[in-house]
Design brief:
Length: 239
């Protein structure tokens, strides 16, 4: 079994004639937290969507758990234990918290529902308090917790998070990132995180990639990038 869980090799993605990813190479090892940081419009969400097959790579390959998934339909990719918490959270606003979590578990036919629900409630106790409340009535932070909880109900091998900090208060961001760290340390969960919030993302991640205009321009250890003057000037100062 390879140490690499996910590998992108020369991935190019277009929206019509517009190129969004210009040949991305990156690896995520088993048990790692890897982040892609970059400004608005750099191509972070497109990277995530391309991995899930929602947006198709026109060139290059996506290898997951030793298998080429580049052209697989999204529903088959999801079945391979890749779970995503998308940008903007996309929770089901009219459904209750509990129903949202049931939706996450549907992917694996509710095989471990009670056990996994307990795990999610232990990670995010506020979700248990709010379990009968409609998703749309939750605060932004609670909705983000619900989106992550829903992804966890699918028992992912790879958890992908798209800008979990977006629009949230610093304290809530800290709390959510601590849970991600705990999941990684205690359960060995592999996490792929794309973030504009470079400070929090690089502090959390074992390794990071910097993306500019659809290209990876720099990579290194999370702490190493955090102390890199170019990264500091572009993404951290005043941020
Ligand atoms: P954000 O933080 O805003 O989500 P991002 O780094 O995730 O930024 P993407 O959303 O992946 O960036 O966008 C990459 C590029 O592709 C941008 O230039 C964007 O305008 C373009 N783009 C994204 N979605 C579409 C689309 N559906 N149609 C056309 N162009 C798109």
């Amino acid at each position: 079994m390879s140490d690499i869980l996910l590998s992108l090799k020369g991935v190019k993605t277009y929206y019509g004639k517009i190129v969004a990813l210009r040949g991305i190479d990156l690896d995520v090892h088993r048990g790692e937290i890897v982040t892609v940081i970059g400004a608005n419009g750099a191509g972070k969400s497109t990277t995530m969507m391309t991995i899930c097959g929602v947006t198709r790579a026109r060139e290059g390959q996506i290898i997951y758990d030793g298998e080429n998934i580049t052209t697989l339909p999204t529903h088959q990719i999801v079945k391979k234990a890749i779970a995503q918490s998308p940008e903007g959270r996309r929770i089901f606003g009219r459904m209750t918290v509990l129903e949202n979590l049931q939706m996450g578990a549907a992917v694996i036919d509710y095989a471990h529902f009670e056990e996994d629900l307990r795990m999610v409630y232990d990670l995010f106790p506020i979700l248990e308090k709010r379990q009968s409340q409609r998703g749309g009535t939750l605060s932004g932070g609670e909705q983000q917790m619900l989106a992550i909880g829903r992804a966890l109900m699918a028992r992912p091998k790879l958890l992908m998070l798209d800008e979990p900090s977006l629009g949230l208060a610093p304290l809530v961001v800290k709390q959510i990132f601590e849970v991600v760290k705990e999941l990684n340390e205690k359960q060995g969960l592999t996490v792929f995180l794309v973030e504009q919030n470079a400070y929090h993302a690089l502090r959390l991640a074992h390794r990071g990639y910097v993306m500019i205009n659809g290209q990876i321009t720099m990579s290194g250890g999370g702490k190493e990038l955090l102390s890199n003057p170019e990264v500091q000037a572009a993404y951290l100062e005043g941020g």
